[in-house]
Amino acid sequence: MKQTIIFECIQCMSALVRADKHKTCADLRLQLIHFEVLDYLSYSNQYTDTPAATASYFGMSRGTVSQSLIVLEKKGYIEKSKDPIDKRIVHVKLLPPGLTILKKARRTKLFNKATLLLKQSTPNDIHIKLFITVLNALQKASISQSFSNRKKNRFHTMKQPTVFDLIEYMSALIRSEERKRCSELKIQLVHFQILKYLSSCNKYSDTPAAIANYLGITRGTVSQTLLILEKKEFIKKNQDHKDKRVYHVLLLDKGLNTLKETTPTELFTKASELLESESSVTENEDVFVKALTALQKANNSYSFGICKTCKNFTKISSGFFCELTQEKLSKSDSEKTCQEHVII
Questions:
Q1: Phi, psi (5° rounding) for residue 71?
Q2: Who contacts 70 (Cβ-Cβ below 8 Å, separation ≥6)?
Q3: How confident is the model at residue 228 (pLDDT cuts 50, 70, 90)?
Q4: Residue 334 backbone phi and psi in degrees, to 5
Q5: Alpha-carbon gap, residue 11 to 5, rounded angstroms
Q6: How far is 250 from 101, CA to CA, in rounded Å?
């Protein structure tokens, strides 16, 4: 189905956006979740600026949100006040220093460069209409009331959203769904993200270093997370037979089964059903591929693309071959994500 291509592109773009945000926030000494909370508060009103509403929006526990708010309050980015009528309700207000740091984190070089690259391919207004249609389908399919309520949310307050503003919003929506599933199964979001990545990467990209690059987090965080996943018997590490300094991470059956339970497939299934009658979207899936390509080209480090779409991928009489590594490729490797991917 063409919708499958569309949502695969959106998920790939979401991963690139998330990694870029991780790096940007790290430079600003801000955790990604703290950025997301500040971003949410900048669009919230008197009915949605509470810790409870924030937790519901992100699919997190109230305890996790409370800890984030404590950190942000200490930094002077927010202030909390009791409701004048119902003292049990607490409202959270974004302060000028919080808005300043938010503006620095919100608009990245990746988005700016990708927007320029995308404009060179087709008119921007065509992209906007298509992406708005897909975003609306995802909103309707979402189990999160904050995202599915179309009367008032962040997207509808945007004056002139770009394609990548919409992609960032879709990324937040997808993360919210993933958090809800992770919370139900008592698994951390970063654990899910690593399992998901391992299910789709090839032999050149299943190392701890590649995982860190893909997720935009430190190698130390990845190492600690892999230890936990290994203890749970979700993964196992194998030493490279050529370079003993390199370790490959293999996803085990237990990890794969957990991943299947955690992945919000119903979100994409329902959204796909809603898009079946939208010929403008299904007949223009190449626009989503172009948007993904623009993001990959704008990414200064790794594009993390499908192996068979790489400049170094070639077909030979006995199968497939990588011109970069000078090695034969299996059919499975050719269809998976590679961090050495070079855009054609």
A1: -65, -45
A2: none
A3: very high
A4: -65, -25
A5: 10
A6: 39
Taking a C-beta distance cutoff of 8 angstroms, is the pair 114, 297 a contact? yes
CA–CA distance, 70 with 80 (Å, rounded to integer): 10
Element (H, E) at 146: helix 145-148
Name residue 62's amino acid.
R
- Tokens 């065509």 correspond to what residue? 126
Q: Is 329 helix (H, G, I), strand (E, B) or coil?
A: strand
Give the distance from CA 149 to its chain's centroid.
21
Span 252-272, pLDDT tens digits? 999 999 999 988 888 888 888
The answer to whether 72 and 98 are in contact (CB under 8 A) is yes
Q: Is residue 20 within 8 Å of 303, Cβ to Cβ?
A: no
Q: Is the pLDDT of residue 71 over 90?
A: yes
Q: How far, CA to CA in Å, does 286 sit from each of 11, 118, 175, 289, 306? A: 15, 12, 24, 5, 16
Share the mean pLDDT of the chain: 84
Q: Enumerate residues 6+ apart whose C-beta is below 8 A from 50.
A: 89, 90, 91, 92
Rg (CA), the chain: 21
What interhelical angle do 32-41 and 51-58 show, nearest 10?
Answer: 120
In this structure, is the dihedral angle defined by the CA atoms of residues 199, 205, 206 and 208, taken in order, positive or negative? negative
Distance CA(275)–CA(273), nearest Å, equals 5
Tokens linked to 309: 């779409």
> What element of type H or E holds 262?
helix 253-262
Q: Which residue has the higher pLDDT, 148 or 289?
A: 289
178 neighbors 189 (Cβ within 8 angstroms): yes
- At 122, the pLDDT band (50, 70, 90 cuts) reads low
Between 37 and 176, the more confident residue is 37
Instruction: Over range 177-196, report the average pLDDT.
Output: 88
| pLDDT over 50 at 192, yes or no | yes
- Dmax over CA atoms of the chain, in Å, equals 76
User: Global pTM?
Assistant: 0.77
What is the share, in percent, of the chain residues with pLDDT greater than 90?
30
Look at residue 201 and give its three-state secondary structure. Answer: strand
Higher pLDDT, 215 or 108: 215
